[in-house]
Write a structure and sequence with these properties.
By secondary structure, this protein is of the alpha/beta class. The chain is 38% helix and 19% strand. A hairpin with a 3-residue loop joins strand 10 and strand 11. The chain is globular, with a radius of gyration of 21 Å. Manganese (II) ion (MN) binds next to loops.
């Protein structure tokens, strides 16, 4: 019995949907990350080689994490937004590594995807002819790699390198949220990857703005018990928000971090936790409420609130509310004090 018997059945169902169109258009979430990018690349290959249907992938927003920029540069990956003019009536649409109507995916107006492949928990609003959502997988890149392996499509060096980085960055080297299947699939494709490029991607040069933002972050971080909040103000790239949230979670005795930044008339928020029982996605959605959107999974989440302008006073209020709600949900009592990360004496949060 083939280890991929289940996946082969899925391939048959997926084939019918892909082949009902003349071309497959694959879309990933905004501010594309390695998991989304490599998943889209894998699907493009699967569609062209196994289903015989040409495919393209498109992403909105920019790639700003230094590692991710290094990835698209070293592997020569082209990231472009979907233009209305390039859509054809015979296209089929697939969404990878996210789900529609979650606020981090720009779909053409009125468009519902035909295919959704993701590892975030299934959302009620998600509807498509083909849905493969596996929240027990650490990365969508693992799901897509499994399809390629089951279809016996050769995984060439560039794609293997992208998928390895997709899986490893999403799971912090097969730790965070990873399952046995992630390690198994990673091991299967790792020999085909370019290990030197993988290492270069993981250790990129960092722009000066990174250090400036970090400086600001450290000076605006407040701790209460096992939780901390960092407020960045305006950032020059949206990815600084999750970068800082990741970094500050490494602080000893901290198991929850929230980072807030402002970019393009939006408040961006990232939550990280090391608590295995937590559901960071639902947690951040409850913080943001009806004012914005948020999504994620157990240990990490991202969200946004659109403001008229980020210099708007209501923007300050939203940020204050987010910080207070975050601490309150984690047991903060009125009148207790939040302590700045960098100084010893108790100074009230501003
Ligand atoms: Mn992912």
């Amino acid at each position: 019995m083939s280890p991929f018997e289940e996946v082969q059945k899925k391939l048959e169902q997926l084939k019918a949907v892909v082949q009902s169109g003349k071309r497959l258009v694959i879309l990933g979430h905004d501010q594309p990350d390695p998991d989304g990018i490599s998943s889209a690349m894998a699907f493009t290959e699967l569609s062209a080689r196994y289903f015989g249907v040409p495919a393209i992938f498109r992403f909105a927003g920019e790639v700003s994490r230094p590692e991710n920029r290094e990835m698209i540069r070293r592997l020569r990956i082209k990231i472009n937004p979907l233009q209305k003019s390039e859509i054809r009536p015979t296209d089929r649409f697939a969404v990878v590594d996210c789900q529609p109507h979650t606020g981090n995916l720009r779909l053409p107006e009125g468009m519902e995807p035909h295919i959704v492949i993701d590892h975030h928990p299934l959302r009620k609003a998600t509807k498509a002819a083909y849905i493969d959502v596996r929240p027990d997988y650490g990365a969508t890149a693992t799901i897509m790699s499994e399809y390629l392996l089951a279809a016996a499509v050769e995984i060439k060096t560039t794609l293997a390198t992208a998928l390895c980085y997709g899986i490893s960055s999403e799971t912090q080297h097969l730790g965070r949220g990873a399952a046995a299947v992630d390690a198994r699939i990673y091991s299967a494709i790792f020999p085909a990857a370019n290990q030197k490029i993988l290492s270069q991607i993981e250790n990129p040069n960092l722009p000066r703005e990174y250090f400036k933002t970090l400086n600001r972050a450290l000076h605006h971080t407040y701790v209460y018990k096992n939780a901390l909040v960092s407020t960045l103000g305006e950032v020059t790239a949206p990815d600084f928000v999750p970068i800082v949230a990741d970094l500050l979670l490494k602080c000893e005795r901290i198991s929850w971090s929230l980072c807030i930044g402002r970019y393009d008339n939006r408040i961006l928020a990232s939550v990280r936790t090391s608590s295995r029982k937590a559901n960071a996605g639902a947690f951040l959605r409850s913080l943001v409420g009806k004012r914005g959107t948020a999504g994620g999974h157990g240990l990490l989440a991202g969200g946004q609130i659109v403001c008229q302008s980020t210099s708007d006073l209501s923007c300050d209020q939203y940020e204050k509310d987010l910080r207070l709600k975050f601490f309150k949900k984690l047991g903060f009592k009125e009148g207790a004090e939040m302590i700045p990360l960098l100084v010893e004496e108790n100074t009230k949060m501003v």
